[in-house]
Amino acid sequence: MRLLTLIPSIKQICKDEGISGVSIGVLHRGETLWTEGFGFRNQAKTVLTDSETLYGIGNLTMSMVAAGIGKLVDGGNFDWNTPVKEILPEFWNVDTTFACEVTIADLLSHRSGLNGNAEFRLASHGNGEVLLSPDQLFEAIKIMPCLAPIRSTWKMCPWGYSIAGHIVTKVTQQPLHEYLKDQIFGPLGMEATTLRPSFVEHTNLANPDTSLTNVDTNPLANRLQSEDTIFQGSCGAYSSVNDLLIWAKATLAASESIQIDAASTLKQIPHIVSNQIAIANPSLLERSYGFGWARTQLPGRVGLTGDNKDLWDISEQPVLGAGSQSRLMIYHQGGDAGYSSFHAIFPETKSAVVVLTNTTSVSDAADWIGRTLIDGLFNFSNPVDHVSLAAQARIRRIEQFRALQETLTKERNNGTTPLPLGCYVGKYINNDYKFMLEITLDPNSERDLILCFQGRPSQSYNLRHYHDHVFEWSLSYDEVKKRGRPNITDPSYYKIQFEIYPDKRASKIIWQLEDSSLPKGLTFMWKDEKLAEAWRAVHKGMEKKQDDSIKFANDLWCRRYRYK
Fold first, then answer.
1. Position 414 in a domain
2. Residue 486 in contact with residue 126, Cβ under 8 Å?
3. Could you tell me if residue 80 is inside a domain?
């Protein structure tokens, strides 16, 4: 079997990218052709991976949620083009134009026009922790900017699948995880797939790792779990290669005809995998998105739903299947803290490729391995050297972080000094998102502060003076990976700007966390009443110079925070 000749390439990609473990599966002519595991699923590197190993599959969850919605459409509960406001009354409080027009199809095909990048950066932090609660979803949607008219352009936006989860619960009176288990996973025999993984009971579970610049693997402290979070519907599932091959076979079978057998588990699949919106026009050949699935007509450029898309302009991306016959590739990718996944199906030959890894690598290794398997499966006449591409991608990713530090150094205004650090201490609240930035003194440094997101100790970072009343908390690539954080290399994201009252204490924070949707930044107001009382006590009746009062306040802050 020619696929076996790909093993050295797969192993080389794993070695170069620091992958702890990977499981792969290949389906052809409707039959399983190959399954195999490489590397280890545990951090002690003593237990091998296999086709039954359970991984977090990230955004592959979307196709499963879309299938769940498809069953409700087929059952006559609503139509794909039903406005969301007719199902969820919460939508009446959202912006009028958006609420009146957006449909279920718009949300699932990522053509709603919502940006949501800033909100995603607020919600998603280290080790997969989600810092916005589910009950904040519609408050976030209410103020989320629409950067394009509905149905005019494609932009990946996980919030649509968060709303889809609410739709399922509203209509069925079941939590999303129970509905998918009862209606999709159970009937198909996908016994391992779940939105509620038991990390204690499941004995064949891949532990999450990240890869550092020297390709050493670093274990993450927590396993990703989206239970009862705002992102459950977009990236909450765990699955195995064997289950995803079952998923592929069922999807391929159900996509063959509009008239599906009444006994079929999957409904509306021809609609789900069809072209709903173009991706990255202009394109001569097919490059579009359905509901939870991307589509590309090979020869073509793929990988547009994963991390590698950020490393090359689409015109620079290699062409998969160049010089070979045309065929439709329907695929998706997923990636979260400690996991990366790739899943592709090919209707003409009833083929599928599945790649699951338990490592967030420097570039998207699951993508490179998946493309390598596709090259070998179809014996393309001009195969791409994905081993070399992975090496180039690794260099580009590390360079992005080097450039981040270079830019921060260049933009620093040297020679400025801050107020005494105690003047910046306090809790700063953004009422729109109910999000808090807590600033405290660093107990290990006389020069730094500590920035803590939502008051969670696990989300605390050193905050260093940058210039004037601006501080920065930038991280190296390895620090980002060790904390299980997303790859963000925008310098503005790491700057915290304080505004100051006349009495020389901070009044608010301006955080430029995402330029395209929040060009003026997000404002967090100082809301620490206990500290406000202490500050007023310092100033009341004092006749000393202001500088002396500031020093006194700084000492007060030090006593309060350094030894609390």
1. no
2. no
3. yes
Residue 535 near residue 423 (C-beta atoms within 8 A): no
Residues with Cβ within 8 Å of 246's Cβ and at least 6 positions away in sequence, in order, are 188, 189, 190
Q: Are residues 444 and 341 in the same domain?
A: no
- Looking at the domain assignment, is residue 9 inside a domain? yes
The enclosing domain of 556 has a CATH number of 2.40.128.50
Residues 346 and 268 in one domain: yes
Count structural domains, the chain: 2
Distance CA 495, CA 486 (A): 17
DSSP code of 136? G
Question: What tokens appear for 365 in the block?
Answer: 């290794």
301 and 429 belong to one structural domain:
no
Instruction: Specify burial of residue 541 (Cβ count, 10 A radius: 0-12, 13-18, 19+).
Output: exposed
- In a domain? residue 134: no
The residues, any chain, with a CB within 8 Å of residue 481's CB and separated by 6 or more, are: 210, 211, 212, 218, 360
Per-residue pLDDT of the chain (564 residues; tens, 9 = 90+): 578 899 999 999 999 999 999 999 999 999 999 999 999 999 888 999 999 999 999 999 999 999 999 999 999 999 999 999 999 988 777 766 777 889 999 999 999 998 888 889 999 888 888 998 888 888 888 888 888 899 999 999 999 999 999 999 999 999 999 999 999 999 999 999 999 988 777 889 999 999 999 999 999 977 766 777 889 999 999 999 999 999 999 999 999 865 556 568 999 999 999 999 999 888 888 999 999 999 999 999 999 999 999 999 888 888 999 999 999 999 999 988 899 999 999 999 999 999 999 999 999 999 999 999 999 999 999 999 999 999 999 999 999 999 999 999 999 998 899 999 999 999 999 999 999 999 999 999 889 999 999 999 999 999 999 999 999 999 999 999 999 999 999 999 999 999 998 878 899 999 998 877 788 899 999 987 666 666 666 555 443 444 554 555 555 555 544 433
495 CB neighbour count, 10 Å cutoff: 21
Are residues 395 and 447 both part of a single domain?
A: no
What is the extent of the structural domain holding 318? 2-113+148-194+206-400
